[in-house]
Amino acid sequence: MSPPSLGFKLGKTEAYIVDLLREKGYVHLTLFDPEIKDPASLARLAKLSEEMGTDGFMVGGSTVYFREMMDEAIKAIKSVSSLPVIIFPSNITSVSPYADAIFYMSLLNSLEWWFILGAQIHASFLVKEYGLEPIPMGYVVFKGETSVAAVGRAFPLPESKPAIVASYALAAQLLGMRLIYLEAGSGADSPIPPQLIRIVRKAVDIPIIVGGGIRSGEDAAEIIRAGADIIVTGTLVEQAPERLAGLVKSARMAARERPPAITRYTGQMT
Ligand code: 1GP
Prior knowledge:
alpha/beta
């Protein structure tokens, strides 16, 4: 069956992600926080991550307050890799002209208008001026003891209430967002539980991104089997980059064993 027409043309980075989802059933993104590693280390880790099978990079951090840090980090990654670099913004200071794309995201469970819509309004003309490809995304945060929850004034969603979480994800889809990101927070003790991902999978047909606390191949495989399309790891590459190859391999095998998860772009039903 041919994929349904979307009624609009995807940008280059989003089309690359969708093509990978069609071809191999999942995508792995490596997150770099410019506050944690200097540009030279980032370049080294980016090269290594590409060799180990990552599909692209996200750059951002909850407490990156200086645009220059974003610029230098993105330039360093781009100097060694041609994989796409996507801004993972925490505020308007994250908007750098050197990236390929930006997750144009709304922190749906923030208690503050600024993180839901305010920063997006303030950054809109900047994104246009820089020619960044916006990828509209809903973002929900779990677990209180993380930087993202504190900085984003998030009211963390309860992992034990999947129906509530699914209603946030479905609202994101109905509002026209093309991705939903379930975030445990960088450095979280454990990843988002698979049973929660399964319920969200049933509710939406946009791709699901899962990140935070994913450290092992088994974590990654479980998350993929539960229905995630895109997995993000950050801390693993900062602390034990040699383990990335194994994680990517497990994710690839898990994706091969399951039916294609997304329906919106592939036209296949879960
Ligand atoms: C955080 O989901 C990402 O925004 C990655 O988390 O650093 O725990 O891999 P980790």
